[in-house]
């Protein structure tokens, strides 16, 4: 059931307006914070108000205007988009609170918070895009508005990282554009409202080229190896930005794009006939293992997290490319599961850096006594990644394995297990180091980071547990994922 | 080396050019498209329709008058361009090192003697353009040349008096302004810009308008040529 | 081809003149000589277009008493009158520029000017 | 009001009369010239507005100068392509407004009235150029605009400017002569000068070689005017050294007249129907692609901000020419609209650069570091221009890129679609340098932080144009659907 509703436009517009207000009045700390938080809360309210409807199968659409003759700038809220929007707008609140605390001593705060708001505006735009052109529009805008955040430090390394980031993502954007043009040329439409707009009649060769082009385009932001090079370098940015890049916006935009391509542009049925996704699945599996392996040898805390992100993102890609309902559920759900766990970890890394100035893992010995709540949250996230039941990550792994078996590709289960072991191998030593390797003379009294940093950390960790325990409760995000899967597979 | 290369390239370029012109309709034949299409109409109707016995004048000022309107704008552009390129902030620096003219008495005398006749000839060329070879441009050029000769002989200050400061900009703009004036008159009269009255009885008006344009072009052309020369002279 | 070229000798001559002018524009270093090359090219094209209007045995297209057909084609002549004016205007501007360049740089040789840059 | 038939002639003679009267008007009062020129351009814009409304309502229409029927007189023909007078008037008006303060400081005082005369003449030439339906008339207007453009480059009186102007003049004059030669050839075989008439008569011509030579000559000469890659050498100096408002006009409009001429040539030959244009099309596509890459390549090494913008023009004209050469519906629509959009974008950038130079006195990227804090509005406008020129949505540049890429696929030339999209990335490399230096790098000259925004007469045009860059990205369908019938008609024969 489709309902014309203004709210899909309202959500990105709200943050856009607030970004404008931040630029105008942001010289004063109060207004900067007021608009940032106000926008976050308002937007979450708007998104959440559509949630019940979406779970029951209502699709909210709003066609803003014809962008070019025939192709409109349109918004459309379906289950998949809603899922992404809920995750990103929930996380935005936490990230905003965290950023307010974290950025206190930094320069150019107006610019930072302005572009921060813009960034989330474009992310919601991506989630609610009605057609591939609108999606591309926001995807490309996201690149531009994150650039000032990446080079925020204005150091030579930051510029280098920014250059690398732009080079990768703009080339990716160019591929997306070409893919969009080619899609329009072959299918005659760009709408994402159906489970697949292409058909076998378009010719296998064209379809193959198109698939590779689009996946390569979105794959850059989704950091599929070998397109991942920008992500570890972009660590030069301040921590809230890393959190944003890794959990909320950028990488998820890429993964979300891949999901859209597989489910809405090609459609599961067509891809099964074409037999195109197998190499993608293998590439994803390769990325999962290789990135985990590289992560083992990183001593810089944020770099280790970065490689972990690369590895985790490919879960989504793998789930999507297996083309079974179970795997698809896992892929969609992992958008949230990975986001909450990874953002917790980045927040922890940032809090430790702000509090103690330590950025390398070997320096963290004994930190668990000084910052017990922070490290507790980290432990929760780590266990989630390892895939311990009751934590969010377990849900993904479970469904993904079921999906692999459903598809008859049991060796992917082995990949799951290997990945869980690798995750354990690079996260648990940190926990161990923090609690059990305290060098003599360690500060034993509690000295936590300030509340604006600590509260988001604890909230996110709680969410990780919540997502892991309530997967089957109706009305929770997981049921959205199921709704999306029902639509995609025509069930 | 460079020159030889250029020459070789140009000789190479000559081949297609020569091939193409050899395929053009034969030179001088009366059955060419150039002769049978538009120009046949002009030759047949020009004299009674357009107001001048000289068909070329008809074409320039009437049939294709708008081209000439543009053309007089081009010379005005040239004047504006020369002034915009050559005028300087303070005029004093330019005049310092100018060599003084020394012209022999004989030359000076003969030029003075001839000047009125040259001017008269120019006027003749201008106002007879519609029945004989000649016209505004030709006459204007002769007038302009006269101004140049007089400058060389009498010196600049003397010659500049030919073109007083007050009407100077008006005279320089005379040609386009006349054209626009006649064009607008035609617009009110016939409903077409640069339209000339078509009625048989009004042929004298046609001729008068042509004459007005010729004079405008002649005066404007002369003023511009003289001004350009003086500006360059001041900068020399 | 040679035969056709012989008939159209006027056109061929214009083409050759045009290329000679182009040679001067490209190969000469002196700015004034360059510009004279441009004037040669202009003349070549005027000659070409006027030649298009020639009719064997044609008379000046001036009507009135004593006029007898055939007349030459009036259009090319009219066009070229415009063309000449345009050429004169371009020449005036080019010479002004050369004057300025000479005053500022003391030379109008293209190679010397290039060294000064 | 709209149907009054004479607006078309008013649009030409209004700036023409305004130009010749400028020295008279400003004889007593120096300040009168800009005010007068603005007044004249306002009236002209009004006429242009009526013309555009009329063509949108009733389609193409003709005006017979002197009342002589086609092909005996000169016909002015106003079709959807001619609606580019809208952008000519807009950019012209804004550049004149921008000149008010800018020119008063940057060129010698006695030249100022003639500066405004020349700008008006230049605009006259372009307005006539896009509206005329007669080949020789086209040549005459082309000469008005070229001659005034040469002079405008040299008007600042710097040594380099005069040499650049001379280089421009020689190349421009040679190309004009080649065009005249080609017109002569076409006249020789058809006996006519009216474009529509030539088009119908060309269909029955037996000797093809002269016609093909005329086509080749015109294409080559117009490519010189449009500064397509190997023929571009006059452009960078001329555009970079001219006063900024002139650069905006030259880069935004004058270069486009070359492309516009190509469009007219195509109209003639498509109309004739029986000519094989594949060779020309292929040449245009390739040269367009090479221009995109080479323009971007040279621009990367420029320190001077205006030099960089000048090379960027070469890239962008490459887009347009490539779109034309693709000869598919979408390609030509995209190319035509990019004529319009690039004019907006490049005018934003050049006028913005002018404002920066006016206030700070610096013109290299290194010297201009930190100017984003000192002149936030101008810098923001230029950043919008930069994003727009690279073709990042939702700005004006994106739609054209989208359409031309679509045209490449439609024409079965996907490789050029790739070249175009990735060429745009190349362009981005040097614009990001500009944005970095404005905002993110510490100033080389600390005193730069003290300068404020430029006066309103300079700030307003820059901001308006930047806003238009955004608006035209969102309302892009208006020019696209406006131009569509004309392209369909042209390709349909």
Structural class based on helices, strands and sheet pairing of chain D: mainly alpha
Radius of gyration of chain D: 21 Å
Our count of domains of chain C comes out at: 1
- Contiguous helical run count of chain D: 19
Q: Which percent bin holds the helix content of chain C?
A: over 70%
Count every beta strand of chain D, where a strand is a DSSP E run of 2 or more residues: 2
Category by helix and strand content of chain C: mainly alpha
Note the total helix count of chain C.
5
CATH topology call of chain C: Helix Hairpins
Main sheet of chain C, how many strands, which sense, barrel?
none
Q: In this structure, how is the largest beta sheet of chain D organized?
A: 2 strands, antiparallel
Percent of sequence in beta strands of chain C: under 5%
| Spatial ordering of strands, largest sheet of chain D | 1-2
Detail the poorly predicted runs of chain D: none
Helix content of chain D: over 70%
Helices, strands, pairings?
The complex is a heterotetramer of chains A (491), B (236), C (117) and D (493).
Chain B: H1 2-22, H2 33-36, H3 38-50, H4 55-63, H5 65-86, H6 92-95, H7 105-127, H8 136-154, H9 156-160, H10 168-172, H11 174-190, H12 203-235
Chain C: H1 2-7, H2 9-27, H3 31-52, H4 74-105, H5 110-116
Helix pairs in contact in C: 2-3, 3-4
Chain D: H1 7-25, H2 32-58, E1 61-65, E2 74-78, H3 85-106, H4 112-131, H5 135-154, H6 159-190, H7 195-202, H8 208-226, H9 235-241, H10 244-272, H11 278-300, H12 305-326, H13 329-360, H14 371-374, H15 376-390, H16 396-410, H17 414-440, H18 456-474, H19 477-492
Helix pairs in contact in D: 1-2, 1-4, 2-3, 2-4, 3-4, 3-10, 3-13, 3-18, 4-5, 4-10, 5-6, 5-10, 6-8, 6-9, 7-10, 8-10, 9-10, 9-12, 10-12, 10-13, 11-12, 11-17, 12-13, 12-16, 12-17, 13-15, 13-16, 13-18, 13-19, 15-17, 15-18, 16-17, 16-18
């Amino acid at each position: 059931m489709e309902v014309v509703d203004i709210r899909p436009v309202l959500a990105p517009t709200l943050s856009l307006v607030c970004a404008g207000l931040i630029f105008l009045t942001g010289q004063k700390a109060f207004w900067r914070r007021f608009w940032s938080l106000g926008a976050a809360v308002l937007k979450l309210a708007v998104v959440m108000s559509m949630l019940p409807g979406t779970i029951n199968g209502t699709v909210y659409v709003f066609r803003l205007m014809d962008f070019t003759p025939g192709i409109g700038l349109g918004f459309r809220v379906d289950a998949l988009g809603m899922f992404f929007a809920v995750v990103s707008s929930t996380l935005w609140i936490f990230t905003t609170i965290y950023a307010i605390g974290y950025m206190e001593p930094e320069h150019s705060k107006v610019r930072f918070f302005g572009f921060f708001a813009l960034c989330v505006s474009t992310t919601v735009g991506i989630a609610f895009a009605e057609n591939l052109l609108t999606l591309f529009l926001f995807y490309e805008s996201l690149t531009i508005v994150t650039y000032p955040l990446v080079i925020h430090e204005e150091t030579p390394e930051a510029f280098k990282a920014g250059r690398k980031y732009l080079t990768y993502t703009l080339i990716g954007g160019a591929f997306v554009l070409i893919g969009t043009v080619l899609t329009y040329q072959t299918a005659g439409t760009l709408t994402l409202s159906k489970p697949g707009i292409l058909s076998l009649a378009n010719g296998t060769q064209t379809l193959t080229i198109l698939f590779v082009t689009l996946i390569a385009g979105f794959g850059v932001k989704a950091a599929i190896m070998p397109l991942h090079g920008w992500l570890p370098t972009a660590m030069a940015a301040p921590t809230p930005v890393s959190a944003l890049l890794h959990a909320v916006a950028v990488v998820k935009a890429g993964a979300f794009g891949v999901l859209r391509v597989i489910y809405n542009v090609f459609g599961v049925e067509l891809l099964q006939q074409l037999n195109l996704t197998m190499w993608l699945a293998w590439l994803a599996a390769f990325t999962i293992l290789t990135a985990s392996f590289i992560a083992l040898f990183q001593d810089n805390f944020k770099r280790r997290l970065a490689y972990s992100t690369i590895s985790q993102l490919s879960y989504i890609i793998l789930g999507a490319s297996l083309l079974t309902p179970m795997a698809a559920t896992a892929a969609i759900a992992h958008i949230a599961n990975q986001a909450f766990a990874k953002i917790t970890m980045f927040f922890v890394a940032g809090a430790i850096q702000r509090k103690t100035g330590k950025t390398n893992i070997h320096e963290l010995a004994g930190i668990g006594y000084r910052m017990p709540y922070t490290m507790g949250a980290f432990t929760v996230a780590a266990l989630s990644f390892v895939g311990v039941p009751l934590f969010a990550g377990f849900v993904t792994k479970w469904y993904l394995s079921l999906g692999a078996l459903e598809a008859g590709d049991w060796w992917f289960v082995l990949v799951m297990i290997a990945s869980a072991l690798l995750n354990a191998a690079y996260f648990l030593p940190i926990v161990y180091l923090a609690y059990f390797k305290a060098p003599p003379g360690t500060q034993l009294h509690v000295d936590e980071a300030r509340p604006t940093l600590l509260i988001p950390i604890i909230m996110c960790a709680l969410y990780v547990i919540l997502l892991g325990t309530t997967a089957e409760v109706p009305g929770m995000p997981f049921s959205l994922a199921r709704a999306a899967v029902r639509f995609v597979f025509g069930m | 080396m460079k020159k030889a290369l250029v020459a070789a390239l140009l000789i190479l370029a000559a081949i297609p050019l020569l091939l193409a012109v050899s395929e053009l309709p034969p030179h001088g034949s009366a059955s060419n498209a150039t002769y049978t299409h538009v120009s046949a109409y002009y030759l047949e109707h020009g004299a009674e329709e357009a107001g001048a016995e000289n068909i070329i004048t008809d074409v320039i000022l009437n049939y294709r008058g708008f081209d000439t309107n543009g053309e007089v704008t081009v010379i005005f552009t040239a004047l504006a361009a020369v002034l915009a390129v050559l005028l300087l902030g303070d005029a004093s620096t330019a005049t310092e090192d100018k060599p003084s003219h020394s012209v022999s008495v004989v030359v000076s005398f003969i030029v003075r003697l001839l000047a009125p006749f040259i001017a008269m000839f120019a006027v003749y060329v201008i106002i007879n353009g519609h029945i004989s070879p000649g016209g505004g441009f030709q006459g204007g050029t002769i007038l302009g040349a006269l101004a140049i000769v007089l400058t060389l002989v009498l010196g600049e200050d003397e010659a500049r008096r030919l073109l007083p400061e007050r009407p100077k900009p008006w005279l320089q703009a005379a040609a386009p302004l006349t054209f626009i004036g006649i064009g607008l008159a035609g617009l009110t009269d016939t409903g077409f810009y640069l339209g000339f009255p078509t009625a048989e009885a009004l042929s004298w008006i046609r001729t008068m308008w042509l004459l007005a344009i010729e004079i405008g072009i002649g005066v404007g052309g002369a003023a511009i040529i003289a001004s350009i020369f003086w500006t360059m002279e001041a900068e020399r | 081809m040679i035969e056709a070229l012989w008939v159209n000798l006027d056109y061929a001559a214009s083409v050759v003149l045009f290329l000679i002018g182009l040679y001067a524009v490209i190969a000469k270093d002196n700015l004034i000589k360059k510009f004279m090359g441009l004037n040669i090219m202009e003349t070549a094209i005027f000659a070409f277009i006027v030649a298009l209007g020639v009719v064997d045995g044609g008379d000046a297209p001036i009507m009135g008493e004593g006029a007898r057909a055939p007349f030459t084609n009036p259009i090319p002549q009219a066009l070229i009158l415009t063309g000449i004016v345009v050429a004169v205007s371009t020449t005036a501007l080019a010479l002004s520029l050369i004057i300025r360049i000479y005053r500022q740089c003391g030379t109008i040789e293209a190679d010397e000017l290039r060294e000064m840059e | 009001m709209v149907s009054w038939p004479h607006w078309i002639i008013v649009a030409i003679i209004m700036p023409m009369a305004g130009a010749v009267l400028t020295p008279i008007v400003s004889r007593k009062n120096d300040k009168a010239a800009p005010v007068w020129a603005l007044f004249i351009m306002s009236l002209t814009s009004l006429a242009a507005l009526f013309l555009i409304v009329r063509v949108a309502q009733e389609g193409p229409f003709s005006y017979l100068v002197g009342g002589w029927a086609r092909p005996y007189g000169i016909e002015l023909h106003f079709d959807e392509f001619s609606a580019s007078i809208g952008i000519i008037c807009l950019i012209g008006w804004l550049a004149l407004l921008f000149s008010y303060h800018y020119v008063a400081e940057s060129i010698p005082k006695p030249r100022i009235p003639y500066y405004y005369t020349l700008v008006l003449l230049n605009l006259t030439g372009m307005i006539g150029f896009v509206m005329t339906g007669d080949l020789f008339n086209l040549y005459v207007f082309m000469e008005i605009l070229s001659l005034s453009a040469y002079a405008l480059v040299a008007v600042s009186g710097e040594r380099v400017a005069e040499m650049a102007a001379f280089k421009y003049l020689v190349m421009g004059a040679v190309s004009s002569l080649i065009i005249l030669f080609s017109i002569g050839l076409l006249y020789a075989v058809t006996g006519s000068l009216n474009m529509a008439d030539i088009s119908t008569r060309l269909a029955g011509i037996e000797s093809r070689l002269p016609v093909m030579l005329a086509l080749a000559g015109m294409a080559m000469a117009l490519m010189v005017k449009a500064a397509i890659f190997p023929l571009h050498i006059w452009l960078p100096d001329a555009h970079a050294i001219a006063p900024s408002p002139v650069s905006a006009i030259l880069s935004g409009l004058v270069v486009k007249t070359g492309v516009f001429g190509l469009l007219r040539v195509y109209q003639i030959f498509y109309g004739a129907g029986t000519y094989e244009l594949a060779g020309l099309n292929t040449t245009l596509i390739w040269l367009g692609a090479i221009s995109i890459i080479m323009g971007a390549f040279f621009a990367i090494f420029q320190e001077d901000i205006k030099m960089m913008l000048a090379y960027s023009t070469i890239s962008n004209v490459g887009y347009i020419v490539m779109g034309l050469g693709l000869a598919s519906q979408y390609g030509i629509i995209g190319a035509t609209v990019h004529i319009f959009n690039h004019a907006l974008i490049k005018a934003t950038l050049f006028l913005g650069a002018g404002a920066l130079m006016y206030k700070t006195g610096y013109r290299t990227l290194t010297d201009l570091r930190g100017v984003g804090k000192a002149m936030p509005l101008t810098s923001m406008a230029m950043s919008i221009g930069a994003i727009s020129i690279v073709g990042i949505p939702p700005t004006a540049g994106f739609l054209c890129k989208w359409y031309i890429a679509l045209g490449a696929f439609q024409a079965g030339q996907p490789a050029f679609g790739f070249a175009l999209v990735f060429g745009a990335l190349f362009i981005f490399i040097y614009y990001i340098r500009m944005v970095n230096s404005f905002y993110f790098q510490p100033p080389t000259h600390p005193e730069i932080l003290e300068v404020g925004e430029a006066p309103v007469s300079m700030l307003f045009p820059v901001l308006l144009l930047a806003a238009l860059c955004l608006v035209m990205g969102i309302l892009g369908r208006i020019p696209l659907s406006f131009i569509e019938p004309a392209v369909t008609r042209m390709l349909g024969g």
